[in-house]
Every structure is written in structure tokens, then in C-alpha cells.
Amino acid sequence: MYRTNNCGELKISDVGKTVTLAGWVQKIRNKGFLIWIDLRDRYGITQLIINSEKSSKKVIDSVKDIGREFVIQVEGEVIKREAINKNIPTGEIEILVTEINILNSSKVPPFTIENETDGGEELRMKYRYLDLRRPALKDNIIFRNELTFQVRKYLKEEGFIDIETPYLIKSTPEGARDFVVPSRINPGEFYALPQSPQTFKQLLMVSGFDKYVQIVKCFRDEDLRADRQPEFTQIDCEMSFVNQEDILNTFEGLVKNLFKVCIGASLEKFDRISYADAMELYGSDKPDTRFGMKFLNLSEKAKGSGFKIFDSSESIYAFTIENGESFSRKDIDYYTDWVKRPQIGALGLIWIKHNQDGSVKSSVDKFFNEKQLKSMTGSKAGDLTFIISGDKKKTLTQLGSLRIHVGEKLGLRDKNKFNALWVTDFPMFEWDEEAKRYHAMHHPFTSPVKNTIGEDPGSTLANAYDLVINGNEIGGGSIRIHDQKLQEEVFSILGFSKKEAFDQFGFLLEAFTYGAPPHGGIAFGLDRLAAVMKGEESIRDYIAFPKNNSGRDVMIDSPSIIDKDQLDDLNIKIK
Asked: Does residue 532 lie within any of the structural domains?
């Protein structure tokens, strides 16, 4: 037996016991007559002590050959520590080593295996198996495991059935590019990896499985960032004979349970806001409502004073920072330069500062008097207002980005506070001016509100909903179309001919002719949910083996070139 106990469980009540431990050497401290070793496994750290007066010469000699990350096995007596370490559960005891066995040696690791490591991200991703030994990452992966267990437990009790769907499917347009897989036995033909199991879960509703769930890998060939990966995990769910209210209530219950059980947090209130209001008030369809700074529409009030920038703008929007008098001119210039960056794209930033003495100072003093500036924003003494103008959609988005940045700088995005809301009533279609056609804002199977589109597709609202927590889209879904004729109408609006629609989705349209029930569902990003619950923005540290920003796995060097024989088998020639 390699061990009688793990490195995180021995307590003061175990003093006097003889135990066997095994793990990795975290740290060695040699004082000559006393040697301490921190022994680590996934459960924690236990301190070992080798005493020149009490330990054998064999043990003392063995320690000379041991370095960091060596795998060792020790036997010894649990004794009380003289200097208690309150930072670890085993901090009251240590092991007086009587026997030591080196199970495997280790090269010096390329970075320190500690939370505050000296390794850069690319280096740590190259040696991800070492990075996963660090307590922070290890705890994240264990937390994810707890989260998935609780998801399955809760939904099983709610009557959901876990059903697997295929990974090798047909390529269909769902928004992002597909990853495609060549078929050797069907030359010139390709599978696609699923962006989501959307059509399969709808088919399962036709099959009569009225509550489906799957924790499933999804694949999207798109540009990456901190909260995106080419392969990610969804909590994918679908229900029959439900309306929007049924689904929101069901999954509010799930999310409340996850927060309570997994992190001990109460998430009782789920606000609701329409897409239109979210954009108008926050400049985002995933607003962070942990802090205020709602937008003011100044489009009417600010025009007509001879300031050409305002007078020629479609829209003028602002938000006010309470107690913003502490912002220096240097601070304001910083934010002005920040919104001018290419990533934001604003031409400039107008500001109005309401001083404590009642006076007003602004960057547009030449065009507005104090009375006009005060009435324009309705702000009080001490407030600072930021204003951006231009095209409405761009202005709202730019000001929304600035609002988040200011909130971050002011420490208003408290990671221990959780605000949840449902965003509803999304537009069903988006007009692509370049392509001169509509695109589905969610996907082509989303039902319109009241199951009718009307004469103007651009004004049609979708029976869709997103769950947003702390400014992060955690999940999204919709009530689906279950009527074949309505589905064909949607395909027609999206520019599909009847033949194209049948070629792509004929299996689904055919299924709808055999009694499809009303149904709807939702999918949560498991990786993102885990990160948000832990107060982090990036999902990478909650995935065991993620890709970098170029979509590469630098540890295994993937993607990689395949040899000519494989290409010939697949009837593929590299262009």
C-alpha cells in the first residue's frame, strides 16, 4: 500500500499514529540538523521533518538526493508541530520520518508549482500537466467537477433524461464556422463537429423524451478571446409542452441551487429586461447590473446650441459617475484616449463636471452655459458625466464598453456579489447590409413571439432569452418552432430556397410532419458558469487542456500537418 492517508487529512487527533504518505515534494528547507519537506498531493500539503538526532542515517542520506517535484513515499509518526501553520488544514501536525522511498525523480520544473508562479501563460500551457499541479488550477478543476455533479443531480430529480447525441454530424449554417471532418469511406464528403446539439434535441422532443439534458462538447471555428475556446462544454437542455415562463422558472431553480450548494451564495432575485431596454440603458445585451451608471438619452436636449458634433449626430448618450469630482483632468484624458482606441472606435469623449460649489466645468463650455449643462443631465454636485455621440448602435456600444471600464477601475464589479437577470424579446432577425439579407439573431429554429412574423421581419421579436450574471452571458435559449409551415417561412426569410432548406434540414422538416410538440430549451456555458461563480473572467483555468488565442494546443503541438498517405486515404490535396 502506497499510502494510509492523503496529505490533506491528518489532524492533531492523529498524533501518535504511524502513517504512510506519498506525493510530490513541494519544498525542502535544510537547517543542517533539521530538514523539513512539504509533501503535496491533490488533497493538500503535509510537512515532514527529518531530525538528525531521531532519524536514521539512511533517511538523512536519502534526502540529499531529493529535489522539487520528486515523487516520494514516507513512513513516520504524526507529531505536534511546534510552530502551527494556520493557513493549511494539516498545520498543527508534522510527520517525523522513519523511512523514505524515492518513487520517481523529476527534472527541475520550468516554473514554480505555486499559486504565485514565475511562469508566463504560454510556458505554463506548454507544460499544462505541471500547471495543473498548482493549487489554484487544481481547485478550479475540482470545482468544475462538483458543479457538473450538482447539475446532473438537480436535473435528474426534476425528471430530465441524459441522452448523448452524435459528434459526427452534417454541416449546417448556425452562425460560426464548422469544424469539418473528412470521411475516408465516403470520398469527397465531410462530417461536421456540432456547434450545438440543436436539431438533435428537437428531434428528441418529437420522439417523446419531454425533458432532455446533456453535458456536451460543442465546437465552433471562430476567433478566440479569454472567454472563448474552439471546443467548450454546454449544459444543454430541452423540454416539451412548455412556454417561456416554464423554462425560466425551471432553470432559475437550477442556478439558485448551484450557487447555494457549490459556493454557498444566495441568488434569489432574477431581474428581467428586454433587449431594447438593455441596449438603451447599458449599451449591452449582457449588462452588468452590480452598479448603476444607467444611460441618459440626450439626443434632443443636447442639440441646437451650435455644437456641430452633437447637431450632426444621430444619437447622443451619457452616463453619470456619482462623486466623480475626484477625477482629475489627467484621469479624464485617460478615458478620452481609451475610447479612441481602435477596439472602441469613438471619435472623442465629452465630459461635464459638477463641482461641489455649484459651478460646472466641461469640455463644451463654448457652446453651453451652466444652466444648460445642469438641465441637460440633471446631475447633482460632485457628479461627473461622460457623453458620446454618433451612430446610435455604435454610440451605445462604445459607451457601454466605457461604462464597464470605469466600473472596473472604480472597483464596482465586486466578484463576491452576484446579479442575475433574464434578457428577453430579442430581435428575431438581423439585417446584413453588405449581403443584403437577414440573418437569424439566435438560430433559424427560434420561434417568433406569438408564433407570427407579420409583414416586417425586421421588427419581429424572438421568443428567446439569455441568462446574464455579472455582465456575462451564462446561457441562452428560446421557444422553438414546431410547425413545419412556420419553419419554412423562416427559412425563406433567411434566403433559403425550398430545395436548399430541404437539403440542409430536410430531416427536421420531415420530423415536424409527424406530430412535433411545442418545445423549447436553453444551453448554459459550463466553463463560463464555473468561472463567473468563482469571480473570474477567463474560462481557460476551468478547462483541463485549453487552446491558446491562436487555437493551438502548444503542449501537444496541435493542429499539425498530417502525412501524404493519410491525405491520400482521405482523397484530400492541400492547396
From this structure: yes
To which H or E segment does residue 286 belong? Answer: none
Residue 223 belongs to a domain with what CATH number? Answer: 3.30.930.10
How confident is residue 380, by pLDDT bands cut at 50, 70 and 90? confident
Of the three residues 386, 409, 432, the one that is the final residue of a domain is 409
Cα 74–chain centre separation:
41
Phi, psi of 181 (to 5 degrees): -125, 120
Residue 128 domain-assigned (yes or no): no
Tens of pLDDT, residues 54-106 = 888 999 999 988 999 999 999 999 999 999 999 999 999 999 999 999 999 99
pLDDT in tens, 465-497: 999 999 999 999 999 999 988 999 999 998 888
Closest CA to 247 of 467, 508, 532, 516: 467
Instruction: Assess contact for 17 and 26: CB atoms under 8 A.
Output: no
Could you tell me if 479 and 492 are in contact, meaning their C-beta atoms sit under 8 angstroms apart?
no
Domain that holds residue 30: 12-104
Co-location of 531 and 470 in the same domain: yes
Alpha-carbon distance of 213 to 237, in angstroms, equals 4
Q: Is 411 left (phi over 0), alpha (psi -120 to 50) or beta?
A: left
Distances (CA, A) of 29 to 48, 221, 272, 448: 10, 49, 57, 68
Number of alpha carbons in the 13 Å side-chain half-sphere of residue 547: 20
Asked whether 455 and 442 are in contact (CB, 8 A), the reply is: no
Of 320, 438, 334, nearest to 380 (Cα)? 320
DSSP characters over 109-137:
PSS-SSSS-S--HHHHHHTHHHHTTSHHH
Cis peptide bond N-terminal to 559, omega within 30: yes
Residues 283 and 272: their CA atoms lie apart, in Å, by 16
Place of cell 458620446: 388
> 326: which DSSP letter?
G
